[in-house]
Amino acid sequence: MSIAKLIFLGGLAGAVFCCESPADRVATPESEPPTAGMVWIESPDGGFWMDETEVTTAQFAEFIAATGYRTEADSFGWSGVFSKEEQAWLPVDSANWKYPLGPDAAPALPAQPVTQVSYRDATAYARWAGKQLPTEEEWMQAATQGGKHTAFPWGSEMLPDGEYLGNWWQGPFPYADEVSDGFPGIAEVRQFPPAENGLYDISGNVWEWTATERTATKESVIKGGSFLCSTSYCTGFDLQQKQFTAKDSGLNHLGFRCIAK
């Protein structure tokens, strides 16, 4: 294994293809969103449209077909995959948005959130779609239902009436996933009830890129947690939690959704 692969999350370098963006739009509740499947989010500065789900593999495939874009994972020739068997993150050759666990595993399903996309990949898609990534503040405005709920999109209890409303790891991570929510890994979008404002999977399933940067390290803030988060580990499904990730990272538990304003 090369030294570059062992470094894994640090200092990757590569060019990114930039797409021309459609004309700017001014969003209002009465305006048409750039695409179907967006919900209106009220905010102190007027509001914005937000994708009701994470961008799916099928949607990302349309972008690739229309532009010929090449993701950073494809350019590098490998990407990061969490191995339940090894209980560790590993660099896997040819892992990409089509085959997020690598070419020897099953391909991503069309309705699953696209993963193995870097911040630059997500930004390129957003420009093509006439959208942008949300800032951390905008993401929180949407996820907390305008500040109504601070812990989860549905309220203060993780399991209201014992019901799982999101996809995350149950049991001691990374040793045993009890799969109490019905999904041993990533789930297709819309498998759990939406929040009050119509957003699906804003807590759990996959982490989501935001446009907010940690100045000291130039890493991007990611929000929402994933199917690998548990009460014994990162608890990323709690809306107050966040992580920082290098912009050129592609991982099999990290996706994105867009806004328009």
Automatic annotation (TrEMBL):
It comes from the Bacteria. InterPro entries: CTDL_fold, Sulfatase_Mod_Factor_Kinase, SUMF_dom, SUMF_sf. Residues 47-259 form the Sulfatase-modifying factor enzyme-like domain. GO terms for molecular function: formylglycine-generating oxidase activity. This is Sulfatase modifying factor 1.
